[in-house]
Design a protein that fits this description.
There is one protein chain. The chain has 80 residues and is α+β, with helices and mostly antiparallel strands. The chain is 20% helix and 19% strand. It contains one helix and three strands. It has one helix at residues 2-17; strands at 36-37, 47-53, 63-68. A three-stranded antiparallel sheet has the order 1-2-3, with no helix packed on it. The longest helix is centred in the N-terminal third of the chain and has 16 residues, at 2-17. The termini are far apart.
């Protein structure tokens, strides 16, 4: 019994000294960030890039959604 009380007190002391890393949530309305046309060097065809999450110091990466325009078949990819 005394061991469990001592363990509980020790864990409370340890946890009280650790500062909590606060996380925040930022909610943005759909379409609030402007879309961009994908660079021809990176994509073949017409591509629209919609940013979803910007890069931060913690993530160092951004997230985007891409939408590709359907193109008609050309003679180069036609199989008889």
């Amino acid at each position: 019994m005394k061991d469990s009380i001592a363990a509980a007190i020790a864990s409370l002391v340890l946890l009280s000294g650790v500062s909590a890393h606060a996380q925040s949530i930022r909610i943005t309305p759909n379409g609030s960030t402007p879309s961009a046309i994908g660079a021809p060097a990176n994509f073949s065809g017409h591509v629209v890039v919609d940013p979803l999450f910007p890069a931060t110091d913690e993530t160092r990466a951004t997230t985007c959604q891409t939408a590709c325009k359907v193109a008609p078949r050309s003679a180069s990819n036609f199989d008889p």
